Each structure stands twice: as structure tokens, then as C-alpha cells.
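Task: sequence design from structure.
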């Protein structure tokens, strides 16, 4: 607006220019207009971390590369000879093969277990307690976890939890033999059969009474209700009777091959009558060891103690053998890392829009279809992060293999990290070769790390 003389008003278009000039005059001289602390101050705060990384990360890497070019004693420069020996060593190839198996199996299995646990925790009322139980192994060191699973995988069912569970189920379905350690005396009239049982020497006629002594059975392992042995009564027509007993008297004494007063019978022993290679009659001994084979033809028969009486009890799976040692260690790895995968995936599940899930259910999708076609695709970024992270850790697996695998099968369970330790410090004392293995392991880990870093940068861009 102009005044009465036609001069422009001081509040007109010229006012902003005056305001800008005033702001420029108010700015401190020499200022850059940059927000935040100056670069020099930021470097001062970063210096301790940079020194730490340089001392404990950069220097060991560079020194390992340098040391890998020298011999075992570090006195002779051998150039790439350690790498040549490394790639021609059978032990390295076994370790590399096992690492490939680990990478292909362990991260996928752990991620699937974490996904299942994460989904379950959304559907149960005691989700917090469940998460605590599953995540708790992460608080246990790998060394302690290895000791725990070394005991779990013990062959003896009385010590190893895994075989105790398996043998319990097996004994429930198919009860074990009553007398696995029983044997006849050397002079006893018994011959071992090809199937593992024992036959009475010669053939028995109907009406005959037999005495069958055995040894090798501990008194405290006899079945409940066992009574002192009694002589079999006289056999009737078309019958063969007898007694199977433990021919051993506590404290010594007694007559071998004869039933003494303190000697127990062997109850529940299966006795068979065999004619022309076929079992024609079967009987089980009573509490005093007596038996009767009835309804026999008027012909000689072979009396046999069935092999099922003497078969060794099922001892479970040889978890720590050369065949199953790697899968067994993977089981321990799953126990430790499933909680880690569950927590990350559960965080991803909580970020999924519930509208997408409800829309799929409204459209008629089943829960399995919702999980497979909606939940998993939306979780794919999180699942990929978990898999790649586990792959990095799998390449460095060491503690569990060292502790769980017995010395006799460590060569079968060997991995690159363990091979590096064994060559350098576990008796090989060849730190040149060990450094070469360390550099090789670093080369394998770096691509996964680069992939992970690039992914984080894309997500934060």
C-alpha cells in the first residue's frame, strides 16, 4: 500500500530483502551452516572404537595373511606352499565337505524351527513362558551345551537320555529278552544253534524228563516271583517235561549239573519242541523253572531253548558313531539357536499388518493357506536375515564339534574351524598351515557378510 505522497510503504516488497540481510548480519562470521559437531570432534569419539577394531580385528587378519606365507616354525618364507598343502590334504576336504553339509542343512532347519515356535507363541496363552524356555539355551555357553549333549548322546541307556527314551519305547513295544547273558556250562548237554538259542544234545522221546542247567545270570536280575528250582514231574504220554534252572549256589558248594536246594529256577523261559526243522510245540517255564511240552507225536524231538530268551537288549542308536555324529551335533546346534531364530521371526510377525491376514481369512483361505501364502511371503525379508546370519555362525562352528565328538570320530565330524585349531594348537604345531586355513575361512565368510551389510543398507535407504 502507498502513502499519500505515492512513496512505497516500508512494509512492502522491500521488507523481505531487509529481513534476509539482517539474518545474514546476525549469522556468526565464518560459519558453515553445518548441523552437528565438527568432524574432528566426531573422530575423537570414534578413536577408541577404531583403535579397538584395529588391534583386535584388522591386525589379526593382516598378520594371519602374512603368517600363512611362512613355514610351521615361521623361519622360512614358503610363499603359497601352505595353501597348496591345505587343498591337497584329505582332512581339509573332509572338513570342507562337513561345512557344506552344515551350511545346507543347519540354517534352514533352525529357521524353520524358529518360524514354527514363533507362530505357536501367538496362539498359546503361556507364550512368555514358552519363549523363555526356548530362548534359555542362548544363555548357555557352547562349551556347556556340548557337555550336556555329550551326555544326552551316551550309548548306555542308563546314562544317555536319547537312548533311554528310545529303549523305553522299544521295550514297551517289544519287551527285551529275560536272560541275555545266560550260557550253558562247558560240560552241559547243550549246543548253540545258528540263530542264537540252545538245543539239548540228542533227541528226546515223549515221556522223558530233562534237566537243563544254565549259568551267567545274576541273582538280582531274576524276574520277580522266582522260586527255587524243582525237578520236573514225570511226563505223561505225548509229553516232554523238564526243568531249566540256574546251576549256581551262592557261597560255593553244590553239585554241577544237579538241582541243589538253594538254586533258583529260570521262569518265563521259552522252550520249543522241534521236529524235522519245524517247531511243533512251545511251553514257558513256571516260577520254579519246570515246563511241559504237550501234544507231541510219538516220535523223537529236539528240545530247544528259543533264541528270544538270550538276545541282547536293544541299546539304542549309536549317536556318537561316524555315521550319525554330524546330525547329532546339528541337533545340539538346533537346541541352542532355535530361540534366537524364534525371537527375530516373532518380531517380524508382530509387524505384519493384521488386515492382510484377516482379508485372506474372509476370502475363505484356511489357516495353512494363510500361513503359506500370506505370512511366509511377508516374513521373507526377516527369514532371509536369519538364514544368512546363521550361515555366518555355521561357518565358524567349533565348540560343539570339539566337545561332543569323541576322539575316535572327530576326523569324521571335522569342520574347518576345528581343523584350523587342530593344525595350529591341537598337536600339529603348524601355525603356517593354521593361518592359511584361517584366511580360507575368512574368504568363505566375507561374501555372506557383504550380502548382509548391503541388505541392511538397502533397508535403511
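Answer:
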Amino acid at each position: 500500500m502507498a502513502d499519500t505522497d505515492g512513496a512505497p510503504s516500508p512494509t512492502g516488497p522491500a521488507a523481505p530483502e531487509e529481513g534476509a540481510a539482517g539474518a545474514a548480519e546476525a549469522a556468526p562470521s565464518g560459519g558453515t551452516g553445518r548441523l552437528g559437531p565438527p568432524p574432528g570432534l566426531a573422530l575423537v569419539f570414534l578413536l577408541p572404537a577404531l583403535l579397538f577394531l584395529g588391534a583386535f580385528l584388522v591386525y589379526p587378519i593382516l598378520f594371519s595373511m602374512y603368517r600363512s606365507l611362512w613355514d610351521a616354525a615361521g623361519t622360512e618364507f614358503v610363499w603359497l606352499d601352505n595353501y597348496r598343502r591345505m587343498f591337497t590334504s584329505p582332512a581339509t576336504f573332509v572338513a570342507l565337505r562337513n561345512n557344506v553339509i552344515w551350511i545346507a542343512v543347519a540354517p534352514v532347519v533352525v529357521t524353520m524351527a524358529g518360524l514354527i515356535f514363533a507362530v505357536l507363541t501367538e496362539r498359546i496363552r503361556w507364550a512368555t513362558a514358552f519363549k523363555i524356555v526356548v530362548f534359555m539355551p542362548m544363555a548357555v555357553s557352547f562349551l556347556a551345551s556340548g557337555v550336556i549333549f555329550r551326555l544326552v548322546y551316551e550309548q548306555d541307556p542308563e546314562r544317555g537320555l536319547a537312548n533311554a527314551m528310545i529303549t523305553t519305547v522299544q521295550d514297551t513295544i517289544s519287551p527285551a529278552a529275560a536272560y541275555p547273558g545266560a550260557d550253558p556250562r562247558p560240560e552241559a548237554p547243550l549246543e548253540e544253534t545258528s540263530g542264537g538259542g540252545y538245543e539239548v544234545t540228542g533227541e528226546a522221546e515223549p515221556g522223558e524228563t530233562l534237566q537243563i542247567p544254565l549259568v551267567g545270570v545274576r541273582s538280582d536280575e531274576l524276574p520277580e516271583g522266582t522260586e527255587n528250582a524243582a525237578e520236573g514231574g514225570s511226563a505223561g504220554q505225548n509229553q516232554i517235561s523238564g526243568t531249566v534252572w540256574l546251576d549256581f549256589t551262592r557261597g560255593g558248594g553244590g553239585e554241577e549239573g544237579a538241582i541243589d536246594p538253594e538254586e533258583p529256577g529260570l521262569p518265563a523261559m521259552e522252550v520249543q519242541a522241534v521236529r524235522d526243522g519245524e517247531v511243533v510245540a512251545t511251553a514257558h517255564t513256571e516260577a520254579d523253572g519246570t515246563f511241559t511240552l504237550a501234544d507231541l507225536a510219538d516220535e523223537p524231538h529236539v528240545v530247544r531253548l528259543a533264541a528270544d530268551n538270550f538276545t541282547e537288549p536293544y541299546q539304542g542308536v549309536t549317536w556318537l558313531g561316524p555315521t550319525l555324529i554330524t546330525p547329532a551335533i546339528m541337533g545340539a546346534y538346533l537346541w541352542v539357536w532355535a530361540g534366537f531364530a524364534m525371537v527375530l521371526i516373532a518380531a517380524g510377525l508382530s509387524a505384519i499388518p493384521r488386515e492382510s491376514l484377516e482379508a485372506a481369512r474372509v476370502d475363505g483361505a484356511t489357516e495353512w493357506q494363510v500361513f503359506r501364502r500370506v505370512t511366509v511371503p511377508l516374513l521373507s525379508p526377516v527369514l532371509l536375515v536369519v538364514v544368512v546370519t546363521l550361515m555366518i555362525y555355521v561357518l565358524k562352528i567349533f565348540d560343539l564339534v570339539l566337545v561332543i565328538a569323541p576322539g575316535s570320530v572327530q576326523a569324521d565330524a571335522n569342520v574347518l574351524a576345528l581343523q584350523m585349531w587342530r593344525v595350529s594348537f591341537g598337536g600339529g604345531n603348524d601355525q603356517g598351515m593354521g593361518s592359511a586355513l584361517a584366511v580360507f575361512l575368512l574368504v568363505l565368510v566375507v561374501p555372506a557378510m557383504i550380502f548382509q551389510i548391503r541388505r541392511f543398507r538397502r533397508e535403511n535407504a
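The chain has two domains: 81-158+319-460, 190-309.
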